[in-house]
Amino acid sequence: MSRDSLLSTALLASAAMAGAVALSACSKPAADTPTAATAPASTAGSTHAFNDAINAADFAEHVKVLASDEFEGRAPGSTGEEKTVQYLEAQFKRMGLKPGNGDSYFQTVPMVETTADESTVLKLDVKGQPRELKFGTDMVVGTRTGQSNVKVDGSDLVFVGYGVNAPEQNWNDYAGLDVKGKTVVMFVNDPGFHAQDPKLFEGKRMTYYGRWTYKFEEAARQGAAAALIIHDTEGASYGWDVVKNSWSGAQFDLPAKDDPEPRLPVQGWITGEAARSLLAATGHNLDDLYKAANKPGFKPIALPARLSVDLKSQTREKSSRNVVAVLPGAKRPDEAIVYMAHWDHLGNHGHDADEHGGASAGEPHADTIYNGAIDNATGVAGILEIAEAFSKQTPPPDRSLVFLAVTLEESGLLGSKYYVSHPSVPLNKTVAVINLDAMPVIGQARDMTVVGFGSSELEDLLKTVAEGQQRVLHAEATPEDGFYFRSDHFNFAKAGVPALYAKGGDELTEGGVEAGRRAQSDYRDNRYHKPGDQFDPSWKMEGVVQDLDALYGVGRTLAGSEQWPNWYEGNAFRSAHDKLMQAAK
């Protein structure tokens, strides 16, 4: 990773950009898309001139800056955050957009920063025999309580299958069980995935019950003292290194007063290998338990083991910021379409370089910055490009456009959760939300992937735009990964607001499906949540420009009409939307 400086502090306070990107691909504007006249940045020192239309050079420049080493991985509460939010404010001001939170572009999100002591050891008593699980190697744990010292002493272990309580599925892994004060151990994902049974839940496609966030929430509701999820790469859709990298270092949460749901004293993951060994010591076989937990009527299993842990953490009350800008509508400014992306990433792990990639700690060029270029400087660059296009659109949109860059996505979608509870535009006046997260930069595709395909009428609008690009829509190739529940639109969806999460598809014009999936797998395996997620000037960005044009087209249609799209009939979020609309009358 280059250590060259990309920005000076002075440029951060302005709309200036450092370094021109020599890329020629650009979008072809639709009939009412802005023309391609350039608009130089407003302050001296910039060598980049921004184009009114969505184009690859501007997109690349945004990503290059946001993912630079100077932004230090954009961790919430860090100097990297300050640089990020000031940069975003400067860009929105340059475009002429208005503050989206009263007279400010910033919405303060209160948070608690908790950093677990990585010397923590889980101590187990298995049939009278002591065992230990070490942090990072065998397990990772943390606390959501905000307390600097949490102790669990001699807590009985109970295996609860998938830790799911789903009345509509006639499924309850906690049936007849009192887990107060106990430690629950469970599988990731949900029963249909490992059984490969389409009759269980949604089969291969992950439901919200399969997400780790749900499992900890339910364990807390049940009164458990601790919860451990057994990791497996296929079920989680990522390897142990991703879990370790994501759960070590500073962790963030909303204060209890802003999020009063029950919280676990201790929660975390154990490796599949550690789980197999532990269960064998209790007289159980991990493979057999997978089979048992996949069957309706599964009964929880008390394990002859007890867990103790003395979890010490550094805790601080801090705050982070969402960045909100608005382009007021010309005719119906009280109605809005929201474009959103999360700006945060994992920061700088310089304190433990040997654990988190790059060279060993102490070596002169150890790479410890998690730059988050794809995840999610690309999404932020995308909403900036779309904002630029709308700000120059003629005629101007009838409805308002809100551009929302949220924090704390990597900590459990907390920034968007806070915004949904404190929206700039009432949710019953929010027509739709369009989310950009980890945009592909692997070339043009003949298709677009709609994550959560078959959810809302927004897909009908996207289909029309995509057909104009001679592209088709389809579901994500790996619905078992649960991406629909892993990005910020999900908080809007739970509140009833129709949400669209779409990006370039798998079938590349050069190399077809095989090339597309190979490139995406390469990113997932080698760069996702790793220091290697860096800006690369060799990216093929003509495809992401096409994607941004399509997503802009959906918003342009909605902003110039009186349509109120709904979720499709039978979707779980439709009733919440109907209640929102009823409240608007």
From TrEMBL:
Residues 322-546 form the Peptidase M28 domain. PROSITE patterns: PROKAR_LIPOPROTEIN. It comes from Lysobacter stagni. This is M28 family metallopeptidase. InterPro entries: M28_fam, PA_dom_sf, Peptidase_M28. The keyword Protease applies. Keywords: Aminopeptidase, Hydrolase, Metal-binding, Protease, Signal, Zinc. Pfam families: Peptidase_M28 (PF04389). Residues 1-30 form the signal peptide. It comes from the Bacteria.
